[in-house]
Design goal:
This protein has 249 residues and is an alpha/beta fold. The chain has seven helices and 14 strands.
Length: 249
């Protein structure tokens, strides 16, 4: 199993990076964590079979994190000829927001008859939820980021590995719970030290990394402020790049 970064950019494609999208490749059905508006560019660019993806996990409902779903679903119907079920896991409000987004972008697409089953599972912070389609357990944590619906940190366990992800958030103690002892901890680091409402700065994160104790911390969702800095300033952390692959097991 491995983690492949199909996009690690912010909402404004800083540094030419694609929107957030992480692929967890498994021998069985793979899964996506977030599905930003550029998802199909990442899938095509990095040679991913979209039909190998059995589930999509969403941290929150901003366009650079879930805006690629309409095109992914339409590609599944019209191009990739999907027949296997697809499960979408997201915060409360996912079903309604996805329906609205599909109708805005492609009128009539939300109600079209599909050749595959589409299941939407809405989760709350708290107990883990089993997603049988990809053999995974996911636990959600409440984050601090306004998105018109709950914004979640996600802790996904599959095939004996834990992939943790902050989503977008300013510092909150829940970040420690999300990332604790994870095999890979995907952490937003939009700014180096500047405090911006709803977003994390690297200094605030780095001070708590010993308490989090993840095996690997990968910095993502970086602004030009972060991208302009030398990698030596992020000692102990990996700076994400589109196309990067990290072996998990």
């Amino acid at each position: 199993m491995r983690l492949k970064i199909l996009g690690c950019g912010d909402a404004f494609a800083s540094g030419g990076r694609l929107n957030t999208c992480f692929l967890v490749e498994r021998d069985a059905q793979s899964l996506l964590i977030d599905c930003g508006a550029t998802v199909m560019i990442g899938i095509r660019r990095f040679g991913v079979d979209p039909n190998s993806i059995g589930a999509i996990f969403l941290s929150h409902l901003h366009g650079d994190h879930f805006g690629g779903l309409p095109v992914f679903i339409l590609d599944a119907q019209l191009v990739s000829r999907r027949t296997a079920p697809l499960t979408i896991v997201g915060p409360r409000g996912t079903s309604a927001r996805l329906h609205a987004l599909m109708e805005v972008l492609f009128p009539g697409s939300a109600a079209i008859e599909r050749k595959f089953a589409l299941e939407i599972v809405e989760i709350d912070p708290g107990a883990p939820v089993s997603i049988a389609a990809v053999g995974a357990m996911v636990r959600a944590y409440e984050m601090k980021h306004e998105s018109g619906a709950p914004s979640l940190g996600l802790r996904v366990e599959s095939d004996g590995c834990v992939i943790a992800y902050t989503g977008d958030t300013e510092w909150t103690e829940s970040v420690i719970d999300v990332g604790r002892n994870a095999d890979v901890f995907l952490a937003e680091a939009s700014w180096f030290e500047r405090k911006v409402r709803g977003h994390m700065d690297f200094v605030s994160l780095s001070e708590r990394l010993p308490a989090i104790a993840a095996k690997r911390t990968v910095l993502t969702h970086m602004s030009p402020d972060m991208l302009a800095r030398d990698a030596s300033e992020f000692a102990g952390c990996i700076r994400a790049e589109d196309g990067m692959a990290i072996e998990l097991a």
